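User: Here's a chain of 233 residues. Predict its fold as tokens.
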Amino acid sequence: MCLQWCHRQGWLINNDVICGNCDYRAPQSLPTSFACTTCTHREERAGTEGACTLTREVVPLAGRCCHWNVAPNRAIILVLSHAELAPWISGPRGVSGVFDESDTAPDVVVDTQQRVTVNLEELSVPLVYGVPSADWDAALGLDALQPTPALHPPAHQDVEALLEALACIEQGGAALVAALEALLAAVHLDAVVRTAAVWRAYVSSLLELCRERYGTEPIIANLLQRIEKTVCI
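Assistant: Prediction complete.
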């Protein structure tokens, strides 16, 4: 279970399951006005229909999502009670129990009223808002690509991006963040690397090295998680 923050409803949700009791949960049923082309979170990205500044991914094939023009929560620290739990994950265990049951949840502080204090930047960020994680590939059009790893090695830009990320480990900081973002963009453009076992081993080594040094830094930790999901490690 990966926990994320829904800026539309102001709820903590589990992005492994379909959102329930929410009028915005199905992209195909959203109003046409919810178009990525008119969204304040859209930015240009070469070779694509655009990218989302909230997810840092390409815009979904549906061309819209539930977070269209949403005003993001700018708080760094959230104090969550039962009221901030999405109804479909709410239960007698309370908000602290939801964090206890998640293998990927960040460390939190629980007060005497069972409220949870958490850093917003340490929660998961979806590849597409309003879509469960199992359907992200389909929502982004990645499932239509069926490479043959034995015949197609990783593209040149993928190798360069990986080498650059490895070279930036010592430096860390903004240089490493930029290198990891470039690697994430490269592997999204080349589905071959998502299935090649040798390539996955190289990327896995990179992730391990980065986590040893920078695993507690929210921005880097989030990028590592997204690369891991993309390369299917």
